[in-house]
Amino acid sequence: MTYHMTFRGAVVPAEPGQSVGAALVAAGIRDWRSTRRGGRPRGLFCGIGVCFDCLITVDGVPDRRACLTPAADGLHLTDTPTPGDSAPEAPASEDRVLGGPVPEAPASEDPALGGPAAGGPARKHPAPGDPGLGGGEMGGGHAPSA
């Protein structure tokens, strides 16, 4: 059985078990959104749901990852609008993009949780240049080898 989805007015065939992204690429469609800056075309990149390059609108629901969305008969696919197309977007800041700073949790006074009351110091993050604490040049988190 072959599914039939629509995209940009064309019928896109898909096989059971195929993702929306795989079906679009198999039909020769390589992009379905553009970048915010520069308007560069985007479609599948990683193909495993990590990168978010393949966002698409499925049956009116925006920002679905095409590589993770199973193909189904009758799906109506549309380009995901670039933010700012319909309304001006607030300027992006690094904090907004990355989710903002993470507040440091207060030290626990509960000995069961390893707080200062347990006799040890409050936990501290390793210094960026201290390779013995895993914060070395590459930040790999491994102690230096002997």
Describe this structure in words.
With 146 residues, the protein is mostly beta strands. Helices cover 8% and strands 18% of the residues. A hairpin with a 2-residue loop joins strand 5 and strand 6.
Strand order of the largest sheet: 2-1-7-5-6
Helix and strand pattern: EEHEEEEEH
Tell me, briefly, the overall form.
globular
Number of strands: 7
Distance between the amino and carboxyl termini: 61 Å
The chain-level mean pLDDT equals 74
Summarize the structure.
With 146 residues, the protein is mainly beta. It has helices spanning 20-26, 94-98; strands spanning 3-7, 10-14, 33-34, 41-42, 55-58, 61-65, 76-78.
List keywords for this structure.
single chain; 146 residues; mainly beta; 7 strands; 18% strand; globular
